[in-house]
Amino acid sequence: MTKNPIIECVPNFSEGRDEAVIRKITNEIEKIDGVKLLDVDPGKATNRTVVTFVGHPDAVIEAAFVAIQKASELIDMSKHKGEHPRMGATDVCPLIPISDITMEETAEYAAKLGKRVGDELGIPVYMYENAATKPERQNLATVRSGEYEGLADKLADPNWKPDFGPAQFNPKAGATAIAARDFLIAYNVNLNTTSVRRANSVAFDIREKGRVKREGDPISGKILRDSNGEPLREAGKCKGVKAIGWYIEEYGMAQISMNITNTKQTPLHIAFEACRESATSRGLRVTGSELVGLVPKQVMLDAGKFYLTRQNRSHGIPEEEIIHIAVKSMGLDELYPFEPAKKIIEYQLERPKSGPLASKNLYEFADETASESVAPGGGSIAAYVGALGASLATMVANLSSHKRGWDDKWEFFSEWAVKGEKLKEDLIHLVDEDTAAFNKIISAIRLPKGSEEEKSLRKKAIEDATKYAIEVPFRTMQLADQVFEVAEAMIENGNPTSVTDAGVGALCARAASLAAYMNVLVNCKDLEDEDYVKDITKRATKLKTQAEEKEKSLSNVVIGKLT
Is the predicted pLDDT of residue 1 greater than 50, yes or no? Predict the structure, then answer.
């Protein structure tokens, strides 16, 4: 399926008291299509506001730029006072990869933003963390040392020439630090105790910083030091984790409060398991946990798959079920209901998992197909039939993965189920895509055709839309061909009591392929590009012939097993 890269941006603005100023900044963000403002968190004591928004990378850096621009107009750093370290009107602006994008790609977007801020706004910009241009600039504390008050002297030092923008003191806007960094998860684990000291013991076991080494008694013993007089430390279990124990009166329990700064080093479920193991060793019990703020979907899917693996269960199930397993395994609903639509970043973007056709129930879909409208038509039905075939083959794989006596085979069946689940999702996507392709043709036909230029543009638009209307059912044929692979594996190796289900899955794949083939041919009739028509027809005919042969062979195998 098409990639949908999403990044998060968490700029910190040096204003936390004037709501009108804050609102003017966030208004700029909300004007940009393709981003969603998730959170605005002002702090009066720090005189600082943390803003969170997400979206497509191009839209996010545009929103970040206009917000930085507005902040530079409204905030005067020469008059700023606050408890938090700061050096600019927009003090920091980190970008965080959420889905379908690498850290390296995110760092490239950070550099693009930094260059634009420096060039167009005249603000000195320093890149830090994964976007740092020098190793010594990776740490934000180092980059921000001296703060605003020391910025003029810092900019005069050749060693601190900014990465972008002028090496000149901007008294009103100060300087801005821009980064690409990992997502930070605020996470609390609940304990069946009210003792902060015992909760801290667990926190010290698991946090990267660990605990200070002592002579004799680990609580009251003399602190051991190195030759420079610095305390020696015993490292904790979890890299990239900061943790402390505290008591929450509202809940009547102690918690381990964590910031997980690197989910690659320590995934959420590994932090939970480390707390559970430490608590058990100390006579305590973890009763559940709590996510503060939002979490990327992949973090929850990784957790769900971790616990499915522990249960020797297939991963080839819908993502909603995988997330449900994660929630229940880590007790994320102990204190209040865990609502994926509100807690998972991707779901906050309000992009429906499926299109208007695929989201209908069976009666609605049948009624829509039977209506006087020419769409949805055979192409959409072909994709849906293929999805049903993939679903049946996947069902057999999932049933086989936990068949009594087959515990040693669950991974084999899980791999096939994962493949089948993806085929199902891709084919369901094509249900709406086929109708969208038809609508593109209609839109192209309705283009003006008065002048010669308009006629030429209209003709090209119709040609391009028609090719797309060919490629969508051709993609259905390609996916249906892969459905046969899953169906065949399940007919040969799956639970014998479900062999007919896999056989019906193969029949569905054949129907999908032949139906899509018809749609390829009918749309080819309207194309003038003979070379394109010849090539696509040849490839489609090959897939159609393969579908007929594979279905016949597999049906014979199924019938042979039944007679």
Answer: no
Nearest-angstrom CA–CA distance, 178 and 126? 6
All structural domains of the chain with their residue ranges:
6-180, 185-348, 362-562
Q: Is the pLDDT of residue 353 over 70?
A: no
Residue 282 has pLDDT above 50, yes or no: yes
First to last CA, the chain: 41
Q: How many angstroms separate the CA atoms of 342 and 353, rounded?
A: 15
Longest alpha-carbon distance in the chain: 93
pLDDT in tens, 95-121: 999 889 999 999 999 999 999 999 999
* Beta pairing partners, 99: 6
DSSP code per residue over 366-435: HHHHHSSSS-S-HHHHHHHHHHHHHHHHHHHHHHHHT-TT-GGGHHHHHHHHHHHHHHHHHHHHHHHHHH
Asked if residue 7 has pLDDT above 90, the reply is yes
Record: fold of 6-180: Formiminotransferase-cyclodeaminase; Chain B, domain 1 (3.30.990)
What pLDDT does residue 84 have? 78
Q: Which of 68-77, 126-135, 290-299 has the lowest mean pLDDT?
A: 290-299
Taking the C-alpha atoms of residue 271 and residue 255, their distance in angstroms, rounded to an integer, is 13
- 80 as an active site residue: the answer is no
Identify the weakest region by mean pLDDT among 51-55, 472-476, 485-489: 51-55
What pLDDT score was predicted for residue 220?
A: 66
**Domain 362-562: assigned CATH number:** 1.20.120.680
CATH architecture of 185-348: 2-Layer Sandwich (3.30)
Name the residue among 438, 444, 437, 443 with its Cα closest to residue 460: 444
pTM for this prediction: 0.76
* pLDDT at 180 > cutoff 80: yes
- Of the residues 84, 302, 324, 333, only one is catalytic, namely 84
CA distance 272 to 79: 44
* Catalytic residue selected from 205, 434, 481, 501: 434
One fold for 6-180 and 185-348: no
481 catalytic residue (yes or no): no
What is the helix (H) or strand (E) element at residue 342, kind and residue range?
helix 340-343
- Cα–Cα dist 86/174, whole Å: 9
CB 395 within 8 A of CB 501: yes
Query: Residue 405: pLDDT above 80?
Result: yes
